[in-house]
Amino acid sequence: MILYLLCFLLFLIGLYGVVTRRNVIKIVIGLVFMEFSVFLLLVLIGYVEEGHAPIVDEAMVSGPFVDPLPQAMVLTAIVIGLAANAMLLAIAIRLYKKYGTFDIRKINELKG
Amino acid sequence: MSIIVKKVAQLLSGLIFMYGIYIITHGHLTPGGGFAGGALLAGSMILLVLAFGSDVMGLKKRETGSSIIENSAILAFLVFAAVAMLIGTSIFFHNFLPRGNLGELISAGVIPLYNIFVGIEVGAALFTIFLALVIYKEEVLK
Amino acid sequence: MEAILTIILIFMILGAIYSLHAKDLLSALVSMGIVGYGLVICFLLLKAPDLAIVQILVETITLVIMVSVVLDSTRYELKEKPAIRHEGEPFINSRYVGNIFIGVLVALVLLYTYQFAIEDLTRFGEHVMRMSGTYLEDPANQTGSANMVTGVLFDYRGYDTLGEATILVTAVVGVLTVLRLKGKK
């Protein structure tokens, strides 16, 4: 049970980074930490003690398998996370070109 | 970049490309599959572009080539899924090619073909994102 | 297994706390790499080899893109004081202590209510496969592939793969639109 609590602590640290930091790059880093904690929690739930990796071949003695369904979901989610990060970084490049700074309080004050 | 980095990148990127193709085509026998192999293909081309600069593969100032490859790969994926609906039963993603013996390279119906198309699509998409965000943003930041 | 995973998770949490407080942006990105590669080790220990390959490649590509974005701009976080301070005030004033106290209080309340939510989950390592029970009745002969994760991704759950490919294409179109030049004259 302590593993689940540590995953939630990593999620809270990412949320703290999104809410309180002033730099746009730090906000993106906080969002990445929130995604990582969710991936780890999903794979932790599907683990079976003394289980084999989910592949069938001749050199395997019989035994329980690790659950393959959360692994398939997290495999899709990792690539989707990369796509979302790429969109955020494109917007950050545009913001830097227009205002000359990454500070979100300065972006609020200058006129376009 | 210095001469050592350029030579090592030249030698390694071919090996990484071959390893990516191996992981894509053996996706139904060993761990890997379409997504991992596609990311490896993108990685080998990113290594070449980082070592030599942006004028190594004749890159023009538009990303048209990799965009066309990516879009045609996802179109082929959809065509295969739609053909399965017209032939035989009317299920969208049905596995209609014959399945061979378990554990051989040519087996499991349409799954190797799906792996190849998804691998090409993921590799081209990651390479296009890299080109647009790293190489071509000097035109935006002028 | 629990002890090793707990140690690696504590390293990741320490790296995450440092990464959000670093003055130099490149140090923050290197600390993000600690969390990403620690996650690869966790996936390998939890018997998930496909996820480890994808995570290590995606983490490297993300780090390369972010380093390129940071190096073309200001590197240091702006050294401004977070609040208005007059001359002669001590560093630990009432506002600073109040912020820390509220932060710790909110975190403790959320952790306490989270404990009620995970009471119904089974212990770590004893998983009752209720949802994938029908997927694990002889998958090698039903789908034809020896890799169960590929069989689940492309045969039982094909729509999820189609949705993920659509998201990738949409992201590429979005990035190319945001960074477009102002049209040709």
Fold topology:
The complex is a heterotrimer of chains A (112), B (142) and C (185).
Chain A: H1 2-20, H2 24-45, H3 68-99, H4 104-109
Helix pairs in contact in A: 1-2, 2-3
Chain B: H1 3-25, H2 34-52, H3 64-86, H4 111-135
Chain C: H1 2-19, H2 25-45, H3 49-71, H4 94-117, H5 139-143, H6 148-156, H7 158-178
Helix pairs in contact in C: 1-2, 2-3, 6-7
Can you put this structure into words, describing what you see?
The complex is a heterotrimer of chains A (112), B (142) and C (185). With 112 residues, chain A is mostly helical. Chain A has helices spanning 2-20, 24-45, 68-99, 104-109. Chain A contains four helices and no strands. In chain A, helix 1 packs antiparallel against helix 2 (24-45) and helix 2 packs antiparallel against helix 3. With 142 residues, chain B is mainly alpha-helical. Chain B has one domain (3-138). Chain B contains four helices and no strands. Chain B has helices spanning 3-25, 34-52, 64-86, 111-135. Chain B is flat. Chain C has 185 residues and is mainly α. Chain C has a domain at 1-78. In chain C, helix 1 (2-19) runs antiparallel to helix 2, helix 2 runs antiparallel to helix 3 and helix 6 packs across helix 7 (158-178). Chain C is extended, with a radius of gyration of 23 Å. Chains in contact: A-B, A-C, B-C.
The biggest beta sheet of chain C is recorded as: none
Proportion of residues in β-strands of chain C:
under 5%
Largest interface pair: A-C, 73 and 79 residues
Which class of secondary structure composition applies to the elements of chain B? mainly alpha
Characteristic terms for this protein:
heterotrimer, A: 112 residues, mainly alpha, Helix Hairpins, 4 helices, elongated, C: 185 residues, 7 helices, 65% helix
